[in-house]
Amino acid sequence: MPEANQTAATVLVADDLEGSRALLFTLLSGEGYRVIQAEDGAQALALFQRHPVDLALLDVMMPRSTGIEVCRAVKSDPRTRLVPVVLITGLNSTKDRLQGIQAGADDFLSKPFSKEELLARVRSLLRLKQFTDELENAETVLFSLALGIEAKDPYTAGHCDRLSRYSVTLAERLGLPAELRVALRRAGVVHDIGKLAVPEHILLKPAPLTAEERKVMRLHPAAGERVCAPLKSFRHVLPIIRHHHEKMDGSGYPDGLQGEAIPLTARILTTVDVYDALTTERPYRKALAPDETLRIMREEVKRGWWDGTLVDEMEVMVHGSLKSGS
């Protein structure tokens, strides 16, 4: 019997042999799946562009892009990289399997395969895709909430996007691995999500905050960490959220960390956050020019606030972007 909770899933079947496609179509549609078909690799890639595919079954040996080439393209595209891909190979094709693993394939089926084996692998991978979709939806909600906070203050328009771009560029200059660059991109958006817990009369106050109001405001990094903690994919983001208001001399918050005890990713976000704040107009002052901003930041490095190495890298980055006009 078809599983009612999977009837909406769309499975892409790609094989240059009509008989093989017909067999897979019969087995999968009989279980309630929506099946779309491609007779070669190029057609499969075109279908990926036109349809929301939940799972792909790709024969390795196809004209106009092999199954491995299609898999590599799918896994290289941010829009489709999380779609599970099963490569259908010959029984003893060790070479195909090695190439498939390198291309990012999620599973393999060896010919000839049984109906039971096929359906078991399809069900398992579709459950994984469902979990992944739910995770992406949760991230989307967090990003929407974070951007909603930004939208309340006209002076912070575009702040999150700039922090994401600046911090990733700085991380690239430092040679940080991809997973930390992704964490910085996400943190640029959600770093202040804990401000959901801050009353608006404090959050949007145009005058200096009182001592009590500052205490409330200083709760937002820990609050933001708690909001994002359930997402395992945010494990590298959480230290950035919690520690982006720490200072090198230990005078920051919430934990008063010093020096390299502050995670490097948090120090990166802090550096670009300070730069963006000073170069953006505020109710109480005009935006500062880049050189004036960097001069102030270097003075604050001497006070023990910021990471001087990162400020130096930021200066090189800023001057490079000014010369290029970007």
In short:
The chain has 326 residues and is an alpha/beta fold. Helix 3 packs parallel to helix 4 and helix 13 runs antiparallel to helix 14.
How would you describe this structure to a colleague?
By secondary structure, the protein is α/β, with parallel strands linked by helices. It has 2 domains: 4-133, Rossmann fold, CATH 3.40.50.2300; 152-324, Hypothetical protein af1432 (Orthogonal Bundle), CATH 1.10.3210.10. Helices cover 55% and strands 7% of the residues. The protein contains 14 helices and 5 strands. It has helices at residues 18-29, 41-50, 67-76, 94-103, 115-151, 159-173, 178-190, 200-203, 211-217, 220-228, 238-243, 264-278, 290-302, 308-324, and strands spanning 10-14, 34-38, 55-59, 85-89, 107-110. The protein has a 5-stranded parallel β-sheet, with helices on both faces. Helix 4 links the parallel strand 4 and strand 5. The model is unreliable at 1-6 (pLDDT under 50).
